[in-house]
Amino acid sequence: MSYAETVDYLYKSLPMFQRIGASAFKKDLANTLALCEVLGNPHRKFNSIHIAGTNGKGSTSHMLAAILQTAGYKTGLYTSPHLKEFTERIRIDGKEVSREFVVDFVSRIRPHIETIQPSFFEITVAMAFDYFASREVDIAVIETGLGGRLDSTNVITPVLSLITNISWDHMDLLGNTLPEIAKEKAGIVKHGVPVIINETQPEVQDIFVSTAASQKSRLVFADQVYRVTKQPDGFVIKKSNEQLIISCDLNGSYQARNIAGALAAIDELRQLGIDISQQAITGGLKNVTGLTGLKGRWQKLNDKPLTICDTGHNEAGIKEILNQLKELNYRKLHWVLGMVKDKDVTKVLKLLPASATCYFCQASIPRAMEASTLAQQAWTVGLRGVVVPDVNEAIRTATQNAHPDDLILIGGSTFVVAEIENL
To answer: Does residue 192 lie within any of the structural domains?
Structure first.
């Protein structure tokens, strides 16, 4: 099979959560373990850092990968979903896995795929582990896909675990309360492996304390060690009586908590004997996107009118975007908005400013909520706008209607951002 045929086979033959939703989610690790067994258990052949959380896990993963790369380590990075191309999910030192490897991998294990019948995500996890092992990475940063305890990535025993935060998302799979969701995320904590929590949240703090204690794992709440604030000239970092200012090209104010988590993680890695200089930290954070290829996190696309995209897609993520908007000066807000139909969109829609003009669109995936349905729900909470189903046509319509001093924001779903032309 060609690369295109191989990826098409993965998309169409295997259940894919990003496309079809909960029916693709497997509530055990059996398939992943079976695939890894077939491959000679590659996940045991490299050191790893495991990252979970509701929001911020992608940014934190890329920050740590950038720092480790800058420190001279051959660094694997596994994240999901991809925005433009399947190969974005698996990288070494920022370079995407080759198409040839993808084709070869699927060809090698296709008989086992037919027997085991794994999901799309289970296959990609096994592929990443096989790639990192075969290329002998020094360390790999592994981001969970959904949850933690039953996530396919949770077959690894990392040198460090990190959980960014807990918020409302995927309640149909993870639980209907924040403590229930926290328990699922805390499932990545392994015996004796230190764990970092980016944010201290009173509602779930005890979950992490008790889990770490039961696993005899050192626990650090990053925001109790590092106080990070965004200023015009960079991020101000305070630790004890020390203070410094660093630059980070992921410059959304909400990245302050992720930077705190990354710095606390580096402290733990240093205690484990991994040599990381201050120059590697500052150099890595200054060029996260260049080193790792990360896109879609408060990314500026145009100046006049100012056009920004962001992958924030749940209640907490949208709140962070709205806080970020307060720091900008603009005449009127135009919001190109699309969401998926298995989310509680009403909570998000109620947060959006009624003064904004919305352009309701839908990504080209089965999970996408129809633009007209989204518009109807938006109108019930006082939002106004027009229905333009195609994402890029919606962006063009917003651009045509916007004054040069206006702001266009594109988001509501990762998959809307993924369809932006020339991103």
So the answer is: yes
